[in-house]
Amino acid sequence: MIIFNSGAQLKLYLKNLQNQQKSLGFVPTMGALHRGHISLIEAARAQCEPVVCSIFVNPTQFNDLSDLQNYPRTFEADCQMLESAGCDVVFAPAVSEMYSAKELELKRLAVEDKSWAEGRTVDFGVLAEVMEGAHRPGHFNGVAQVVSKLFRIIEADKAYFGQKDFQQLAIIRSMVKQLGMPVEIIACPIVREANGLAMSSRNERLTAEERNIASLISKTLFKVKELKTSQTIADLKAIAAEEIKTEPKIQLEYFEISDTETLQPIADYSQNKNAVACIAVKLGSVRLIDNVVF
Ligand code: AMP
After folding, report:
1. Ligand 1 centre and the CA of 6: distance in Å?
2. Cβ < 6 Å from ligand 1: which residues?
3. Which residue has the higher pLDDT, 64 or 92?
4. Using one digit for the tens of pLDDT, what is the confidence trace for 221-255?
5. Of all atoms in ligand 1, which is nearest to the CA of residue 37?
6. Ligand 1 test: best mutation among 60, 68, 165, most atoms within 8 Å of CB?
7. If you classify domain 2-188 with CATH, what class do you get?
8. What is the CATH number of domain 201-288?
9. For the chain, which residues make up each domain, given as ranges?
10. What is the spatial distance between Cα 233 and Cα 236, in angstroms, rounded to a whole number?
């Protein structure tokens, strides 16, 4: 496995490989890797050669400075996991490699005066107005900004994303379509802990007790899924809110039942069976998201 910090050098290396017969697979991550990330590497490994993984904690997608500062960074362990999983190339750029000072300044100003449209090249429309888009203003602009830069450097044939970030997947697909990028987006299923908790780098910041408590998040989603045909959407939402309330340490940020394509809330499951239940909560200072497709 070979590690690059420079985009130009990585680009040259990949160009020189000229491995025209096989697909180049790409897995973007922010590091602090777990089995969820590794499942994406394995999916890429099964279809592609070489497999490139990026590790970059992208400052422009954070709208909460303390979340950025506390984001776990475990580069050595990440590289060991990647090598064991058969990853060929790691791209681990510094912030200054990915962004000019001007871009970072624009982001800072956007955070301060909430002018999120600044520097935006893609319009996600209503896709970015709900759920994560509504609760983390500017988040998807930052995601699209970094992923488009990574796509331009790596020029992958296939890029792998987890359904854990369901809305992010829709945003990436929309971006690729709007910018006409020649990359196939592949969705991979959510990998969970034994207690059902969706794996996340942010779980690192939970105590053992909190990890136990956090299993209520997926239990709630699965319960709602089970009841999907016997209850109205309004009742399902009320049930989810009640369930979460049983654990005082968990604060519900949102619970939505949405169309899997448009991500807009659905009114009636019998009229729209392409539904996904999405949840975001705070457990202590840690923000967690999860979802289940009906
Ligand atoms: P992150 O490092 O959190 O930006 O995640 C990098 C990629 O890994 C994204 O495409 C995520 O959706 C995916 N991912 C994160 N957690 C999981 C999980 N538990 N199962 C499957 N994919 C995941």
Report:
1. 24
2. 29-30, 36-37, 39-40, 161-162, 164-165, 188, 190-191, 198-201
3. 92
4. 999 999 999 999 999 999 999 999 999 999 999 99
5. 8
6. 165
7. alpha beta
8. 3.30.1300.10
9. 2-188, 201-288
10. 5
